[in-house]
Amino acid sequence: MTEPEPPDAGAFSDIDALPEPVFELLFGVLRGMAEHPEIQRVRRTAWDALQPMPGQRLLDAGAGAGEVARALAAAVGEQGEVVAMDSSARTLQAARALTPPELPIRFVQGSVTDLEFPAETFDGVRSERVLQHVPDPDRAVRELARVTRRGGRVCLVDTDWESAALDGVPANLATAVRERMLNVAPGHHNDMGRTLRRRLLRASLDDVTATPVTCLFLDPASAAVVLPVMDPAIPPEAGMIPDDLREQWFTAIAAAGERGEFLAVLTIWVAAGVRR
Ligand SMILES: C[S@@+](CC[C@H](N)C(=O)[O-])C[C@H]1O[C@@H](n2cnc3c(N)ncnc32)[C@H](O)[C@@H]1O
């Protein structure tokens, strides 16, 4: 008997299986997001929640292009170490190529649901916008807690895609596209952001905090960096926009931008707790 296929959790659940041009596109999306002021605001909140200090050993699980891992490596200094872990070999290779050799970062391939580290390896762990793609996120949170030392901090960042809202385009068009966006990958956890607090509590972390950071986008180009559904470069094959609405959608967004009436919001949550 063959194993049933897991439900599609979106392109980021298995980047290595994608054709090269799609990988390049997604890696470019990660790089673009890292430069967006609203994502930088989310990351400052997460930095404060993790409380990195010189000399610490830290884990970034699902590190992507590695921007945060590099910043953490600079903060922990040569007495410390950052492990940038990702399930994608290609992503790790591309992230390594962006990393100055003097930074104390080790790139490791692995899965956040089966971490190959002994218990209490790290002073702090973080995972940003990863759990939304993972079939068993509670198992991942238990793993992240397991590898954190007692008194160390676990910081999770994730999107609440259901919080996405828009003004300036016809409401029926926005509703139709939003509906499709939320259903394009059935195994994808659209509600992950707001569930992080509960997941940390269930993993027996102490002093759990949860901070919603609502990102505001006042022009279509700015929104497109974080909300792929606003990005005309995302190909029709991604299935995110109904084919018969695609032209109407991008025309309406551009017109809202030209009138100065475009507005989009998306809440990304930062949750943290202390390993007991
Ligand atoms: C949306 S990207 C976020 C990357 C980075 N944390 C950031 O915020 O820019 C999701 C990342 O998680 C990785 N990923 C997906 N499933 C994973 C798993 N089970 N274990 C570790 N990494 C995983 C992907 O390869 C990808 O690099």
TrEMBL record:
SUPFAM superfamilies listed in its UniProt record: S-adenosyl-L-methionine-dependent methyltransferases
Entries under InterPro entries matching the protein: Methyltransf_11 (IPR013216), SAM-dependent_MTases_sf (IPR029063)
One biological process term in Gene Ontology: methylation
Cited CDD domains: AdoMet_MTases
UniProt keyword annotations, A-Z: Methyltransferase, Transferase
Keyword Methyltransferase: yes
Gene Ontology MF terms in the entry: S-adenosylmethionine-dependent methyltransferase activity
Methyltransferase type domain boundaries: 59-155
Matches recorded under Pfam families: Methyltransf_11
Coiled coil spans: none
Membrane-spanning ranges: none
Name of the protein: Methyltransferase family protein
Organism per entry: Asanoa ferruginea
